[in-house]
TrEMBL record:
It comes from Hibiscus syriacus. This is Protein argonaute 1A. The keyword Repressor applies. It comes from the Eukaryota. Belongs to the argonaute family. Ago subfamily. GO terms for biological process: defense response to virus; regulation of translation; regulatory ncRNA-mediated gene silencing. It holds the Pfam family Piwi. Residues 71-392 form the Piwi domain. Keywords: Repressor, Ribonucleoprotein, RNA-mediated gene silencing, Translation regulation. SUPFAM superfamilies: Ribonuclease H-like.
């Protein structure tokens, strides 16, 4: 018993030291960060995670006289099984807590680089910005800065092979600031097994008291944009991830129609101009420099330089598509993203949409480098992956049931728990 108490006290001291170091890093990065926790460090066994979180929530509410806890820092075992998912599900669907998880190995061996990376995530979870395009500040982004523009990202993740009845999960994120286009909000829903078309983009239903009502993810995010900026978007740029070439026009027809209906439901004759772009990463095309020995045409890993675009020769002869390698390769051969512009009412030039897409890749919040896929699509993928944790354990065990965020009973798919309002803007930052 005495040895266990000694180990526990040692762990607490390490946790205090880690928290102080993290607070200092956040302060150095420009955040106002209280270095003293609201309540003392609380430890619990993994199987008691729900009880522990509720204790911390109520204890902090009592200490702050009813004010919401702004950030929960959780230190998890290195091999934590389902603990991470359980913690996120309880925090984000039950208590409305914004949390940041760290592994024990990083607490015992503190690295400045790790602390800097965690501080990036904490800043965006608290509503800050890590990066903003210089052209956005000076309102010089073509076909974005001129009129209020909202940028969407959407993705659908399907269950693993062998799971014959688990639901597919769709996620849609949308920018919530203009002209900066760096802050996003996201919504998730579950839908029929292996269904690629996003069913909840727009929907109508009959209320026994209020009559016919309309809703859906596009409509909700447009309303959220207007509340955040004070303006309604007059241009929509929609990046759609995870669509195979055989489904391009099926997805375009269904989802473009849903966007149109969502806009019309908000205001008669409200039809912003739409550009619909599919993003693909799963392909076998690789790009190489003409002269591999010319060090000015490759980066230090031997890959093509970030920002390389190919839109001829290996692209479709008549359709509007291009390959963009927006990231610097670190290991192995860089895989470019393949963008297909399926619909364009905004009349982007090839250079215009390529430049915008490449520039957006520098605004990804969780790192200081450019990323390989445009951030709205990346965030949608992360949100859909996160939403799998929201499925209650009995939902996952019961093969006849599924998950969603909206009204249940549709197509036999059980809805996911509703997200708390403050979580919708941060759940895809992980």
């Amino acid at each position: 018993m005495g040895v266990y108490q000694l180990l526990t006290e040692c762990a607490r001291e390490c946790a205090r030291g880690f928290c102080n170091e993290l607070a200092q890093m956040c302060q150095v990065s420009g955040m106002e960060f209280n270095s003293e926790p609201v309540i003392p460090i609380y430890s619990a066994r993994p199987e008691q995670v729900e009880k522990a979180l509720k204790h911390v929530y109520h204890a902090s509410m009592n200490r702050t006289k009813g004010k919401e806890l702004e950030l929960l820092l959780a230190i998890l075992p290195d091999n934590n099984g389902s603990l991470y998912g359980d913690l996120k599900r309880i925090c984000e669907t039950d208590l409305g807590l914004i949390s940041q998880c760290c592994l024990t190995k990083h607490v015992f061996k503190i690295s400045k680089q790790y602390l800097a990376n965690v501080s990036l995530k904490i800043n965006v979870k608290m509503g800050g910005r890590n990066t903003v395009l210089l052209d956005a500040i000076s309102c010089r982004i073509p076909l974005v800065s001129d009129i209020p523009t909202i940028i969407f990202g959407a993705d659908v993740t399907h269950p693993e092979n062998g799971e014959d009845s688990s639901p597919s999960i769709a996620a849609v994120v949308a920018s919530q600031d203009w002209p900066e286009v760096t802050k996003y909000a996201g919504l998730v829903c579950a839908q029929a097994h292996r269904q690629e078309l996003i069913q909840d983009l727009y929907k109508t239903w009959q209320d026994p008291v209020r009559g016919p009502l309309s809703g859906g993810m596009i409509r909700d995010l447009l309303i959220s944009f207007r509340k955040a900026t004070g303006q309604k978007p007059l241009r929509i740029i929609f990046y759609r991830d995870g669509v195979s070439e055989g489904q391009f026009y099926q997805v375009l027809l269904y989802e473009l129609d849903a966007i149109r209906k969502a806009c019309a439901s908000l205001e008669p004759n409200y039809q912003p101009l739409v550009t619909f772009i599919v993003v693909q990463k799963r392909h076998h095309t690789r790009l190489f420099a003409n002269n591999h020995r010319d060090r000015s045409s490759t980066d230090k890993s031997g890959n093509i330089l970030p920002g390389t675009v190919v839109d001829s020769k290996i692209c479709h002869p008549t359709e509007f598509d291009f390959y963009l390698c927006s990231h610097a390769g670190i290991q192995g051969t860089s895989r470019p993203a393949h963008y297909h512009v399926l619909w364009d009412e905004n009349n982007f030039t090839a250079d215009g949409i390529q430049s915008l897409t490449n520039n957006l890749c520098y605004t990804y919040a969780r790192c200081t480098r450019s990323v390989s896929v445009v951030p709205p699509a990346y965030y949608a993928h992360l949100a859909a992956f996160r939403a799998r944790f929201y499925m209650e354990p009995e939902m996952q065990d019961n093969s006849s049931m599924g998950g969603g965020t909206k009204a249940g009973g549709e197509s036999g798919v059980r809805p996911l728990p509703a997200l708390k309002e403050n979580v919708k803007r941060v759940m895809f930052y992980c």
